[in-house]
Amino acid sequence: MLISPAYLSITSYLNFILSASKWIDGFPWLNYLISLTFAPLAWILCIASTCICISLFGSSFLGPNYALTSEISIYSMDFVKWWALYKAQEISSKILAIHLRGTVLLNYWFEMLGARIGSSVLLDTVDITDPSMVSIGDEVVISEGVLVQSHEVKNGILSFHPIRIGKCSSIGPYAVIQKGSVIGEGVEVQALRKVGQDQHVFKPAKLNNDNKKCYVQNAELLITSKTQYDIIYHFMGIYLVGFLSSLAAVIAYFLYIWFSKQPPSPQHFTFVCICGAFHWIPFTIFTYATMFSEVSSNPIIFAISFTSAYLLHGFILIILTTAFTRLLKTCQKKTQFKTQLQCQMITSCHLRCAKLLSGTEAFCIYLRLLGAKIGKHCSIRAINRVSNPELMSIGDGVHLGDFSCVITGFHSSSGYVSGKVEVQDNSVIGSQSLILPGSLVQKNVILGALSVAPMNSTLQEGGVYIGSQSQVVIRNSVKNAYDEGIEEMDMVSKKRVGNLAAALHKNDSQKVTLTRTWYQTFSALFTQPLLQTVLPHMVLGLAVFAPLNCVFYLKSAKNLPIYWLLPLFWIHSGALAALACVIAKWILAGKKKAGEAVPIWSQRITLDNTWQAIRTLVGDYFMDMTSGSFWFVLWMKLMGAKVDMEHAVYVDSMGALLNPEMVKIERGGCVGREALLFGHVYEGEGGMVKFGEIKIGEYGFAGSRAVAMPGVQIESEGNLSALSLAMKEEIIRSR
């Protein structure tokens, strides 16, 4: 369902270029121009044909009868069929549909997959699982990062329940809508909130005074009106994103032939154009296997060439994206099309190259090039794609934790809302936290994991803030009731939180700092970015080499059709890449011990970040498709996780592999989609990273996008619900 549409698009593009070259014989420059111009159209054809293929074949043959079946055992063949369809939809959405965000074309995508979507609906998320069980009314707005999940795997059972979202409703950024939810007309679900299982929400939630003030004073409101030309503008935006990536590849190719003093080749130029448009490594290699019949005999040379091509393309794409986004900003009149195009360009650049720079000074430079103000000695981890970087201001010594989100603009029921976000010196933003437009985080503030800085809010200097619904302010003690997003604590856990706050603020003159020495700065600027980009691509290039040679042998010697060989190649190379990732884990990162503390700028953390980059690239290439299966659990175990392999364990999140040796899952344990099991935590004083074990007992459950910090224990049949936070050393008991 992924390979066939890609192969169809590639061969259609190649046949068209071959025919066009006969028409324009005698004008070779026109052949190059046509190749560049039509490459993005081949990419768009791949998006459309993938959607059609999954809709016609996947949903028809693999999808369960939801009307008759509400529960399925994970040991059954029906589960395997559902899982295959679920993964095809998930991967295609993350790779292809993500470029349709905010456009009417994304509505068509999910309608083809079975969702019932009303008129004038704006979707800015691709995280909609089981689309055929989702019904969305007219004029609904679903913002960035929202997860709409109609299923849950728990205690060995896969269960379904439809979701209905009433007309004129609005779902804020990174909210979670669980199975069985019914959202009434006009309801506004705030950012990072959860609508629980089978929960019915009918009473419209009103904006508080702070939010209203943000809409009027601190944020700019762009009204998103609907016109008959919307689909044309949206198509143009997607085409320009593909064209920009192809143009970056063409520039890289001409630089190569200039330095190597080789004549240009129409075949190579065509290959470069389509690879730039598609970019995703599996599709790039499929193109190579389709167009050529041999590969370098030396695996090292092949890996170096593979790595050099991708890194040079990424570097040029960053430059072009920066230039075009700055050009859009110079235009005096701000329109919906320009705003959307800027977001699409930044999303494409982030996904295709910039995300591997996470945690390095090079990533800070990348954000500065896009217009953000970033101070010295910052640690910016795997944050989201910031849609309006020019509105982001980060002070000196700031730490933005893994998967934290800086939202400078998002779609709402009132239009596109944007506003400045400022985080001042020495502040710490916890993992998976959210900073909304118009918010100000003053100096030495700690915003806890899975917490929100609301629109137009000011987090006071020196404060510790926790929560996403009714925010808790901690200084030296727990002053208020805890947010519903934090699991109920016993008195020992509450005392532990209070002691943590007291330790962080025991001396006002002692500042949390991430100051680096000159050689640490040099490492963060040059050594670490090179390791996090070169080494992952080298590892993947070496893993791909032997299976690709095998494909060429079978293609030429045995005359086997290439489209039959590509699936076997992908599985074979993916397995080798996963094994290489395991070896890299033990060589680079080694085994951490519970209670161990390591300086954040140390060599050990640098090497661990390098392995994380390898894991990310291998996940993008193949292993993301295996999450929720036996093979993913086996991969976890090979990297040090203590997992009961004799009984069914379900893990549907790459976030369980942040520190695999710190994770223990007993029989029947389940980890939901995008749940984060942090075996490490950043503790500001001295810039230390501390490690701790996370245990999930028998039939324990960590829901989708839940966050478990070091030392957390989920007891047998304990339940850490979706979008909930288990704080450091907290115990989640069965109920």
What structural category arises from helix and sheet content?
Answer: alpha/beta
Largest sheet entry? 6 strands, mixed
Number of helices: 16
In percent terms, what proportion of residues is strand? 15-25%
**Sequence of strands across the biggest β-sheet:** 18-20-25-28-31-32
* Number of β-strand runs: 47
Helix content: 40-55%
Rg from Cα:
25 Å
Q: What integer is the average pLDDT? A: 86
Roughly how many Å apart are the termini? Answer: 42 Å
What coarse outline follows from CA principal-axis ratios? globular
Unreliable parts: 205-218, 476-510
Write a brief caption for the model.
Helices cover 43% and strands 16% of the residues. It has 735 residues and is of the alpha/beta class.
